[in-house]
Amino acid sequence: MKIDERHLVQLAAVAETGGVTEGAAMLGMTQPAVSRTLSMLERRVGEPLFTPGKRPLQLTPLGQQLAIQGRSILAASRKAVEIVRSFQSGTAGRIKVGGVPFFMDAVISQMIASFQLRERDILVEQSYGNLPDLLTELDSSQIDMAITPIGSADLKSDFEFQSILPGRNVLTCAVGHPLLRKRRLSIEDIMTYPWVAPLPGSPLVLDLHNILIMLGISELQVRYSGGSLLSVVNYIASTDALAILPHSVVFSFKGENKISIVPVDIPQPERTLGIITKRKTYPNPACRKFQDHIVREFTDLKKVIERHERSIVWGEGPFLPERDR
């Protein structure tokens, strides 16, 4: 025996409202149409569904059991409609975002939190990766967007890039580091102290390499490598080690009084932090809403960072050899 699920829904509506007319109105149907459905259902099961002569309508034991199943179908239908509306309005859904580790931990994670304070029904899944891996994951739809620095080279036509922050690195040390008391730094000054190496595959590896070339240094005293952002910050704060970090990352720790910026110019990367998405993909309104949130947040953050940069008394530079000072 096969029972049409729509018939069970109409039975549940009548049971819920107490009358055929009311049940029909609830479903947006006519009373004759619902009456015909109930008669068809009774013939199909071969048993009465309502107790004869009772007003308001009373279900028989079998009618009650079938109405329970109809209510489940009706509830599922209503839930499905709610899901569709929430998805289309961007108030519910899932967002998969990947990005370079230090930016994600220092900056983006806080923006995800502020986004979800308003959008509590949106799940955000965060992952890590550098540009080549992120592009591969975007191409295979493993992530919806990537937040990463990118150079001047054009992306493939399959991708779109939205700039959110110019690339800017700073020389970083512990608060109270001896270098902060110097007015002018030499190459010998920075070679005196150990360094923290950037994460393998990070754009900062190339940035540090370019700095060494400019200064004519073949190598540094690398004493620590491979740590997470928090471990790197704690290590720098507890030692006299130096590191090259993005200005926005260092700025995010401004209130903790752990690390500081050595106020000297260093070569800057020709990169821009931005959001990469795939052009041809299924629409995800929640993802678009999240992307707009990130752009707004960085618009405000950019202004604050620029004010912070202007407040720093930058020393003379770039680095000069001892003989030229």
UniProtKB/TrEMBL annotation:
<keyword id="KW-0804">Transcription</keyword>
<dbReference type="GO" id="GO:0003677">
    <property type="term" value="F:DNA binding"/>
</dbReference>
<dbReference type="Pfam" id="PF00126">
    <property type="entry name" value="HTH_1"/>
</dbReference>
<protein>
    <submittedName>
        <fullName>LysR family transcriptional regulator</fullName>
    </submittedName>
</protein>
<dbReference type="InterPro" id="IPR000847">
    <property type="entry name" value="LysR_HTH_N"/>
</dbReference>
<dbReference type="InterPro" id="IPR036388">
    <property type="entry name" value="WH-like_DNA-bd_sf"/>
</dbReference>
<dbReference type="Pfam" id="PF03466">
    <property type="entry name" value="LysR_substrate"/>
</dbReference>
<feature type="domain" description="HTH lysR-type">
    <location>
        <begin position="3"/>
        <end position="60"/>
    </location>
</feature>
<dbReference type="GO" id="GO:0005829">
    <property type="term" value="C:cytosol"/>
</dbReference>
<keyword id="KW-0805">Transcription regulation</keyword>
<keyword id="KW-0238">DNA-binding</keyword>
<dbReference type="InterPro" id="IPR036390">
    <property type="entry name" value="WH_DNA-bd_sf"/>
</dbReference>
<comment type="similarity">
    <text>Belongs to the LysR transcriptional regulatory family.</text>
</comment>
<dbReference type="InterPro" id="IPR050950">
    <property type="entry name" value="HTH-type_LysR_regulators"/>
</dbReference>
<dbReference type="GO" id="GO:0003700">
    <property type="term" value="F:DNA-binding transcription factor activity"/>
</dbReference>
<dbReference type="InterPro" id="IPR005119">
    <property type="entry name" value="LysR_subst-bd"/>
</dbReference>
